[in-house]
Amino acid sequence: MRYHKQIAPCVAATLSVAVVAGMAGPVPVGGQTVAASVSSPCDDTPPPAGATLTPSRDLYCIFLTARPGLEAMSGRLELRTPHSPFGVAVNPAGNHLYEGILTLEGLPDPATLGEYNHIVAWLATPLFDEIARIGPVSNGTQSIGEISLNKFMILVTAEARPDTPEWEGRLLLRATSPSARMSPPDMQEYLLGATGTGDMEMAGHAEHGGMGTGGNGTWPHPEMMPGLTMFPALMALDPPGASAFLPGAGIDPGTLPLARPREVIELDDGDEVDLEAGLVRRRIHSRDYVMYGFNGQYPGPLLYVPEAATITVNFTNSIAWPTTIHWHGLRLDNASDGVPGVTQDPVEPGDTFRYEIHFADPGLYWYHPHHREDVLKDLGLYGNMLVEPSRPDYYAPADREEFLMLDDFMMSGDEPMPFGMERATHTFMGRFGNLMLVNGEPDYELEIGAGEVVRLYLTNVSNTRTFNLSFEGLDGSAGATAASAPAAPRIKVVGTDVGAFEQEEWVESIVLSPAERYIVHVRFDEPGEFALVNRVQGIDHLAGAFFQERDMLGTVRVAASGQAPDATLASPVSAAFDTLRTNLHAAREIALYREYFDAPIDHELTFTLRTNELPFIVDRLMRFDSAYFHPVEWSGTMPMMNWNATSDEVEWIVRDPATGDENMDIAWRFEVGDVVKIRLHNERRSFHAMQHPFHIHGQRFLVLARNGVPNENLAWKDTVLLPTGTTTDILLEITNPGPWMAHCHISEHLEAGMRMLFTVDP
Ligand code: C2O
Ligand code: CU
Q: Which numeric CATH code is attached to 55-181?
């Protein structure tokens, strides 16, 4: 049995800090942080009117066990989602954040239990290497503040002193976090029986034999993350049941023009622009590859347009696949939405198509193919569109603007990992890349001046990766942070998919799931070098352990400004940066919809998964893994099982529980002017539950609540992250007639079925 230790649980090291820092003092019963109107996953209160689906109790509620003889006592801890402008609340290291809501019943007078006067709660890591004192608790419901531990225990003890720094007294109640159910030893023991080499060639798997060598290439093995636990039986899996595809077979990259960095195309109402999808030569780390690009560029040209403009795009398809372009997030004319089989026929190789594109709302958008997006977009067919607000003060001022398209690309050694020709591979978790790209570059660099306020337009164009971005000051030697490193910049979120937030907010990191956009302002006050990093908590599934993953995406070099620091920081732009503004324009527009916020739920959708004839070892391992699912699968830590699964073996499902209809059988009908409240539930009890970034075409929506907790700061969106086991309530504004698609924006989930239609009548 291979069991690599280097990835060992870093539970204590990274997490205890957060406990101490984040732990608020206890709040008395009925304290202000405990919103009575919120229905808790712990309670048996029925779901709101119109709804049947509720958040997973199993992931978001912990029942405490009383010690023998103390059974009259009981307790439960709700893991409540705290406010975040993003789809999920995490700290810069990627630890999920919860507000702990502790309800205790039947606690006696501590004096009846011995020499005690107080009842105190504690949080501890599972091995007790760290114990943090929460403080005195009592019968009733109380907030115990922020929890940021990956795995933890909650303990309730009777103590002689209310302020005892260490747990000394009698243990009354205890429980472990849902994540602590991931435990390796039993599973590994069980699996001994499944890791031999004899019986793995099961029916349904053998039929793939040899397919990997068909098509135009052969399948290399996916790369393993260093140190990740991996079973020999998994390493012996056959390639997926699809031919290996890479573009430009037989073409010498040297004969293709070298791709150029993106150009900005400024357009006015009525303008026309040509876009051509074609082969390009891309140089990455001084090697040349054949990939795709729009107009020979990477990313595609940035279309810079004024609000309310309409332009024409003459699209030419010069690649070997049929394709279309979808203008993600725009409320445009249905005929130009670019969905093959719904709004148009695919554009065959050599053919053209005219798109009329209307820009109804200020914000940051992007375009990409809507046919085999898992291949065509990943190979470089994506570009941004910036709709400049008609109000010059729509965002607070900034000194400059930068556009960052965030991506990851999957390499196997020096070569790109091929794609499935007939069908998508990597259909479990999506194709996680191991080469991080910003604007198509592995070594993104930005040079700015100290004190400048920079508006960053961030778009996640990856197939499946959810990023957790932050900046780290570097000390200049070896790229490591050190005491001498400059202080990280402050980050302020101002907008997202379809416009501005009601209020600007400070954040410590930026979370974007695929297809989401965030607009942030940053100011680097000190000169020096900074790393743009993605920091997340990966899971070593077979070891049952979390590990810190840190990907470097680029470098920001901050030059000392010519002026005295005080002068720069006193500029009007800087002064605006220092204040948190309410965006009155955005807030007023959203206020018109408040009357609908408490309306009954009109529709529900469940997100789940069905599998078909998986290889035996994959089926067995994944069943064992289902004791716990993390709210977000941040990292591709099951590379072999994931690679092997195509859309033949895996069907991702969006289901309307009211009718039982699934995927393209769902046919909702609305009328222009409808305002529809929809509850989205990501089913925890599916074969492999994970997050889904859900995108709705042609309309815009507000995210009203997560797990029943109202969202305090709204903005119009077109894509929302649905963490595992949660319910998310959205308010969909129906303004745009036609047949529209809604789907998961993990490219491989879209290919594996997770899409539906709704029709809007005029
Ligand atoms: Cu960006 Cu239907 O997708
Ligand atoms: Cu999905």
A: 2.60.40
Q: Read off the DSSP letter of residue 597.
A: T
Contacts of 370 (CB under 8 A, 6+ apart): 323, 324, 325, 326, 338, 339, 340
- Homologous superfamily in CATH for domain 594-612+649-761: Cupredoxins -  blue copper proteins (2.60.40.420)
The residue whose two tokens read 């890791």 is 195
Name the residue among 683, 708, 684, 722 with its Cα closest to residue 88: 722
What's the whole-number mean pLDDT along residues 493-502?
98
Residue of minimum CA distance from atom 1 in ligand 1:
328
Q: Give the model's pLDDT for residue 216.
A: 57
How confident is the model at residue 23, as a pLDDT? 34
Alpha-carbon span 555 to 446, nearest angstrom = 6
Atom of ligand 1 nearest to the CA of 755: 2
119 lines ligand 1 (CB under 6 A): no
**Residue in 88, 745, 59, 750 with CA at minimum distance from that of residue 465:** 745
Tell which residue, 411, 340, 409, 424, has the closest CA to residue 378: 409
Between CA 638 and CA 650 the distance in angstroms is 15
pLDDT tens-place string over residues 43-66: 877 888 999 999 999 999 999 999
Question: Residue 360: exposed, middle, or buried by beta-carbon count in 10 A (0-12, 13-18, 19+)?
Answer: middle
Q: What percent of the chain clears pLDDT 90, i.e. is strictly above it? A: 75
Residue 510, pLDDT > 50, answer yes
Q: Which residues pair with 465 in a beta bridge?
A: none
Tokens 């291949």, residue? Answer: 375
Distance CA(384)–CA(261), nearest Å, equals 13
Q: 242-390: what fold?
A: Immunoglobulin-like (2.60.40)
Q: Are the C-beta atoms of residues 60 and 708 closer than 8 Å to each other?
A: no
Q: What percent of the chain has pLDDT over 70?
A: 88
Q: What is the pLDDT of residue 300?
A: 98
Task: Determine the Cα–Cα distance for residues 127 and 66; give it in Å rounded to an integer.
Answer: 20
- The amino acid that residue 589 corresponds to is E
**SS3 labels along 109-171:** CHHHHCCCCEEEEEEECCCCCCEEEEEECCCEEEEEEEECCCCCEEEEEEECCCCCCCCCCEE
Of 756, 709, 734, nearest to 48 by C-alpha is 709
User: What gap in Å lies between CA 168 and CA 159, rounded to an integer?
Assistant: 7
By CB atoms closer than 10 A (0-12, 13-18, 19+), residue 163 is exposed
SS (H, E, C) 643-670: HHCCCCCEEEEEECCCCCCEHHHCEEEE
Contact 312, 358 (CB under 8 A): no
Separation of alpha carbons 697 and 684, rounded Å? 26
Distance 754 CA to ligand 2 centre (A): 7
Taken in order 266, 576, 570, 84, is the CA torsion positive or negative? negative
Q: 229 CA distance to ligand 1 centroid (A)?
A: 35
**Residue from 710, 676, 697 nearest 741 by CA:** 697
For residues 501 and 703, is the Cβ–Cβ distance under 8 A? no
Among 22-31, 65-74, 328-337, 581-590, which stretch is predicted with the lowest mean pLDDT?
A: 22-31
Does the beta carbon of 741 sit less than 6 angstroms from any atom of ligand 1?
yes
Q: Cβ–Cβ contacts within 10 Å for residue 107, how many?
A: 21
> Could you give the residue range(s) of every CATH 2.60.40.420 domain in the chain?
242-390, 594-612+649-761
Contact 515 CB / ligand 1 (< 6 Å): yes
**How many CA atoms within 13 Å lie on the side-chain side of 229?**
23
Query: Given pLDDT bands bounded at 50, 70 and 90, which one contains residue 108?
Result: very high
Residue 76 in contact with ligand 1 by CB distance below 6 A: no
User: Ligand nearest 695 Cα, by number?
Assistant: 1
Q: Answer yes or no: is pLDDT of 31 > 80.
A: no
Q: Output the six-digit token pair for 749.
A: 């989930």
Task: Check pLDDT > 60 for residue 172.
Answer: yes
Element (DSSP H or E) covering residue 391: none
Is the pLDDT confidence value at 193 over 50?
A: no
